[in-house]
Design the sequence.
């Protein structure tokens, strides 16, 4: 049925449920699992609040975010491998375009299913923050399984 399943995770409890479902689905279908996290590119002005940040501090903060993202996807891949998923891959994409990065990675990695969580924001909060899940649902040519 599925050969490669991509699961998007941000480390939240809800995305943890999506990870568990993706692992179960990969085991059930004999698919490989690709875990992805989008590490946001931090854009800092010369002044961040009341603190002056130099380039070394900015680079250090970005590196910490990148390492945290890598640890997250590595833990998903390790969990999947420990449960018996035949092949696992952990990918960090550095971008501020979360939904588009998920779609592009799924296509590039030849995934035939995207699994992700919806945080269920409604009305005004959704208008302010947008919905990465909605972006993936409306723009992906690959099937998307959304967990709430």
Sequence:
């Amino acid at each position: 049925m599925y050969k490669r399943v991509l699961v998007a995770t941000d480390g939240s409890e809800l995305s943890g449920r999506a990870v568990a479902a993706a692992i179960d689905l990969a085991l059930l279908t004999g698919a490989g699992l690709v875990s992805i996290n989008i590490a946001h590119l931090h854009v800092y002005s010369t002044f961040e609040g009341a603190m002056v940040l130099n380039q070394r501090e900015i680079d250090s903060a970005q590196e910490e975010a990148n390492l945290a993202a890598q640890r997250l996807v590595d833990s998903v891949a390790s969990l999947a491998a420990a449960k018996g998923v035949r092949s696992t891959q952990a990918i960090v994409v550095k971008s501020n375009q979360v939904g588009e990065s998920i779609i592009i990675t799924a296509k590039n990695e030849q995934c035939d299913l995207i699994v992700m969580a919806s945080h269920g924001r409604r009305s005004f909060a959704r208008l302010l923050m947008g919905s990465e899940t909605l972006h993936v649902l409306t723009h992906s040519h690959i099937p998307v399984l959304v967990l709430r």
